[in-house]
Design brief:
alpha+beta, globular, about 25% strand
Amino acid sequence: MTKSRKQPKKARKIRRVSRLKLRVAAQKVAAIAGVPRIGAEWQGGIYAGVARGVDGANDHHLIIAQVEPEPLAWPAAKKWAEGLSAGGHNDFSLPTRKEQALLFANVADLFKPTWYWSGEQHASDPEYAWGQGFVHGIQSYYRKGLDLRARAVRRLVIE
């Protein structure tokens, strides 16, 4: 029989204090760099967090537009996002699938509990495009002619 080893109270307290100091330090760095809290208004939309760069590209800040159209087909959704101008910015597009996963993780409360188009077409069938569900976080693909909701994002590359 093995004994469970409990850490002394002092060690647990030190570990808690260290985690708290790390959180406070991270908040100070974000404030110094001018990056807002997730969910705060910033740069023509709402800040959703940092997305990883793909294929060696730099990471980027992800900002979601505060407006959304009525449900529409994928081609119209892409056109709407690319034509959107908000807060003096006109560099919006539909999010990638990975960006949609980040949006679900960080700011799902900004979405209606339904499906939203991504900007990605299905790789093996050009009649379909990917979408993100904002109820359980599931991604699936749908015929492009189906009317789903859409939200546009913009990206600020981190140098």
